[in-house]
């Protein structure tokens, strides 16, 4: 049975959040030398891909993949700024805003 279209977008959004979470936990794993962050990385990866696969049952491939990677990229970049001292230059923040606008456009397009 196909998933309801109403669950595809929330699943995709959650997949994108888990994409960012695994990037952060991978950073915290210090090259997979720390056990807990290493295990969390693998769990977040598996959850992210499973939710992406669920969402792709109803959403177009290009839209789902672009939204997934976009949310993961924005989430990871924001976590880097907030927690790891990554640069927050106007150009960098503006570029993240453009990614979010692109994601919103894909959502509106269907």
The total of helices stands at 4
Q: In percent terms, what proportion of residues is strand?
A: under 5%
- Approximate shape: flat
Mean pLDDT equals 94
Q: Classify the helix fraction into a percent range.
A: over 70%
Q: What is the number of beta strands?
A: 0
SSE arrangement, N to C: HHHH
- The SS-based structural class is mainly alpha
Rg to the nearest angstrom? 15 Å
Task: Describe the protein.
This protein is an all-alpha fold and 110 residues long. Helix content is 81%, strand content 0%. The protein has helices at residues 5-28, 35-56, 61-83, 90-109.
SSE topology:
Elements (H helix, E strand, L loop, with lengths): L4 H24 L6 H22 L4 H23 L6 H20 L1
Give me some keywords for this one.
110 residues, mainly alpha, 4 helices
Quick recap:
The chain is mainly α and 110 residues long. The protein has helices at residues 5-28, 35-56, 61-83, 90-109. The protein is 81% helix and 0% strand.
């Amino acid at each position: 049975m196909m998933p309801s279209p109403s669950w595809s977008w929330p699943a995709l959004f959650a997949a994108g959040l888990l994409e960012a979470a695994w990037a952060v936990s991978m950073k915290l794993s210090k090259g997979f030398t720390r056990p807990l962050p290493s295990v969390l990385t693998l769990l977040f990866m598996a959850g992210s891909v499973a939710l992406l696969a669920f969402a792709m049952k109803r959403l177009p491939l290009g839209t789902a993949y672009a939204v997934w990677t976009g949310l993961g990229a924005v989430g990871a970049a924001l976590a880097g700024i907030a927690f790891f001292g990554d640069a927050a230059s106007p150009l960098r923040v503006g570029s993240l805003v453009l990614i979010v606008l692109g994601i919103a456009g894909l959502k509106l397009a269907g």
